[in-house]
Amino acid sequence: MTVQARIGEVTERIARRSRDARARYLERIAAAAEAKPRRGHLGCANLAHGVAACGAMDKERLAGSDAPNLGIVTAYNDMLSAHQPFERFPGIIRDAVREVGATAQVAGGVPAMCDGVTQGEAGMELSLFSRDVIALSTAIALSHQMFDAAVFLGVCDKIVPGLVIGALSFGHLPAVFVPAGPMTSGLSNDEKARTRQLYAEGKVGREALLASEMKSYHGPGTCTFYGTANSNQMLMEIMGLHLPGASFVNPNTPLRDELTRVAARRAIAISALGNEYTPVGRIIDEKAVVNGVVGLHATGGSTNHTLHLVAMAAAAGITLTWDDFADLAEVTPLLARVYPNGKADVNHFHAAGGMGFLIRELLGAGLLHRDVTTVWGTGLEGYLVEPGLDENGGIVWREAAAQSGNTDILRGVAEPFQPTGGLKVLDGPLGRAVIKTSAVARERHVIEAPARVFHSQEELQAAFRAGTLTGDFVAVVRFQGPKANGMPELHKLTPPLAVLQDRGQRVALVTDGRMSGASGKVPAAIHVTPEAADGGAIAKIRDGDIIRVDALNGRLDVLVDAAEFAARAPAEADLSSSHVGVGRELFAGFRHLVGPAEKGAAIFAA
């Protein structure tokens, strides 16, 4: 079956727009692939340094050039639940590849910070920049040129996009992404959200809030709501960088460990020393990028990927725009309801049919490109399976579910939750922004109200506590973009705004900051660009200006006389407190170099 017309049109225009940059990228990785394996050309002292710590068998294999060597790039740390399971993975991987005559070495580690720990704290202003640090760290890890392929161990928000960008800079190498899986289900998401709102209203204390949070985040694995971390896992699978069905298997289980072994051996099989050479720079092409955007829309995924997917595509010489997101959303139905877009968590999504069912439905409707390259050596039809274990503990592949196990969580294209994806691009005199509508009641898709202007989320919280946020209003929280302070997520805005909305007020948020995958039921025009610190019109808004956020028609308007608005001087903000402390002084160069949100908010030149 051919793809739906709009899918084909958007893919073709991306290819046309990207032709020259993509051609240069492919030429570059082809040239890098000519010397294989590169360690065979290293000087004797160089190679001796690279193998000095190995055991005798590995050292003997590495001294030659015929045995494949697998690089492991890991985001392991044991403070973060999502990455703690990776502690065991290097040993599992080494043993797995030795069985097929290969070797494996940890090439390097990358930082993995947790937005959940840093929300509302100074460290959150380093969060987005950590993606590009991870990309740089990945490049350093692989720069020793000791490797024939690589596996990437990462899960969460900025980690996977950073690893992808770094992997694509070594696009001649095969790359398999190996997840750790979500933690088992804890306190229901509804109950967690209810307690947060009660705390915001002062109806329960910190002790009750902490007890609720610790029941929610209670063990090893990814947080179970459908935020950026789990959106990453969906993307890696639908874009062909995971093994089929690997995304949402819980950590520290026999199936998870066996999937890791199979992934390691698969990376060896697709190296240039085998017969199935599959470089990552060929996997991530225009069709794979479009498949990723479609998957994001179909699942109500994280708004952070309007930044990350743009930056990831650019690393492969592909120019993806917000207009592409918007046009693909118009033809992609919403098939999943996972918190914050529903009550379920990702374990429930997986049990209802998960990725195999989702891909089957989207392929059947012509909404995905099936003729893509994947690490599994198939087109996307090879992902219509799910893994299990046989009696000997080996992987067996079963046909993926043909029917949803729970239509309150996961549906087919014949009965979607809504006919279009949950993301809209807004345009207007205030610039461009994105809004996630999949969790917003339709009667709140258009909000017109006076502006209340703040220069931090703390200012808004103080106004909420003081009881001054009365009546209908649009909260404008500005000077939160990448140039201003690194574009932190503003999750502390969600509980107070949700409380006011539940009281019957019509409220919305307009910000040049981020809200991410936890964007919820309050309409939020986010990633406003140009940002206030870069001369954006959002800096001209004054208290009382009528703002119209219109997700139905894709508009972001200020209802002020155009000549008067144009003549206004933009407000200024003292950002010095965001530029020092908790390491922020080290990132002055990043704030200077970073591009606009619409181009991925990256420090790398397009």
TrEMBL record:
<dbReference type="InterPro" id="IPR042096">
    <property type="entry name" value="Dihydro-acid_dehy_C"/>
</dbReference>
<dbReference type="InterPro" id="IPR037237">
    <property type="entry name" value="IlvD/EDD_N"/>
</dbReference>
<dbReference type="GO" id="GO:0051539">
    <property type="term" value="F:4 iron, 4 sulfur cluster binding"/>
</dbReference>
<dbReference type="InterPro" id="IPR000581">
    <property type="entry name" value="ILV_EDD_N"/>
</dbReference>
<keyword id="KW-0004">4Fe-4S</keyword>
<keyword id="KW-0411">Iron-sulfur</keyword>
<dbReference type="GO" id="GO:0009255">
    <property type="term" value="P:Entner-Doudoroff pathway through 6-phosphogluconate"/>
</dbReference>
<protein>
    <recommendedName>
        <fullName>Phosphogluconate dehydratase</fullName>
        <ecNumber>4.2.1.12</ecNumber>
    </recommendedName>
</protein>
<feature type="domain" description="Dihydroxy-acid/6-phosphogluconate dehydratase C-terminal">
    <location>
        <begin position="408"/>
        <end position="601"/>
    </location>
</feature>
<dbReference type="GO" id="GO:0046872">
    <property type="term" value="F:metal ion binding"/>
</dbReference>
<feature type="domain" description="Dihydroxy-acid/6-phosphogluconate dehydratase N-terminal">
    <location>
        <begin position="68"/>
        <end position="381"/>
    </location>
</feature>
<dbReference type="GO" id="GO:0019521">
    <property type="term" value="P:D-gluconate metabolic process"/>
</dbReference>
<dbReference type="InterPro" id="IPR004786">
    <property type="entry name" value="6-phosphgluc_deHydtase"/>
</dbReference>
<dbReference type="InterPro" id="IPR056740">
    <property type="entry name" value="ILV_EDD_C"/>
</dbReference>
<dbReference type="GO" id="GO:0004456">
    <property type="term" value="F:phosphogluconate dehydratase activity"/>
</dbReference>
<dbReference type="Pfam" id="PF24877">
    <property type="entry name" value="ILV_EDD_C"/>
</dbReference>
<keyword id="KW-0311">Gluconate utilization</keyword>
<dbReference type="InterPro" id="IPR020558">
    <property type="entry name" value="DiOHA_6PGluconate_deHydtase_CS"/>
</dbReference>
<keyword id="KW-0479">Metal-binding</keyword>
<comment type="pathway">
    <text>Carbohydrate metabolism; Entner-Doudoroff pathway.</text>
</comment>
<dbReference type="GO" id="GO:0005829">
    <property type="term" value="C:cytosol"/>
</dbReference>
<feature type="binding site">
    <location>
        <position position="223"/>
    </location>
    <ligand>
        <name>[4Fe-4S] cluster</name>
    </ligand>
</feature>
<dbReference type="Pfam" id="PF00920">
    <property type="entry name" value="ILVD_EDD_N"/>
</dbReference>
<comment type="function">
    <text>Catalyzes the dehydration of 6-phospho-D-gluconate to 2-dehydro-3-deoxy-6-phospho-D-gluconate.</text>
</comment>
<feature type="binding site">
    <location>
        <position position="156"/>
    </location>
    <ligand>
        <name>[4Fe-4S] cluster</name>
    </ligand>
</feature>
<keyword id="KW-0456">Lyase</keyword>
<keyword id="KW-0408">Iron</keyword>
<keyword id="KW-0119">Carbohydrate metabolism</keyword>
<comment type="similarity">
    <text>Belongs to the IlvD/Edd family.</text>
</comment>
